[in-house]
Amino acid sequence: MRNLSKHGPRIQEVRITPIAITDPPLLNAAGLHAPYALRTVMEIVTDDGISGISEIPGNAAINEALASAGVPRETGV
């Protein structure tokens, strides 16, 4: 049964997983980009077990900002 009190579900856990996916180097107006794309996968789990997954652009600055906010980073994935 869902925990839908007057405040609704509450976030219990947030995890970030930095990944690199292959992306062929294409020439565009900004030049030639790297042969990979960095992304950050975010997973949010509520206190009643509802989970959601999202992907955002990834780089060291974004991952460090999330880590400094207390979001744990998954490793070995």
Sheet/helix structural class: mainly beta
Based on the coordinates given, report the CATH architecture: 2-Layer Sandwich
Please state the average pLDDT score.
Answer: 81
The count of β-strands is 5
* Termini separation: 31 Å
Number of helices: 1
Radius of gyration: 17 Å
Shape: elongated
Strand order of the largest sheet: 1-4-5
Task: Summarize the biggest pleated sheet.
Answer: 3 strands, antiparallel
CATH fold name: Enolase-like, domain 1
Instruction: Just give the CATH class.
Output: Alpha Beta
Would you mind describing this structure in some detail?
- There is one protein chain.
- Helices cover 12% and strands 44% of the residues.
- It has a three-stranded antiparallel sheet, covered by helices on one side.
- Strand 4 and strand 5 form a beta hairpin.
- It is elongated, with a radius of gyration of 17 Å.
Concise description?
This protein is mainly β and 77 residues long. The chain has one helix at residues 60-68; strands at 11-22, 27-28, 31-32, 36-46, 51-57.
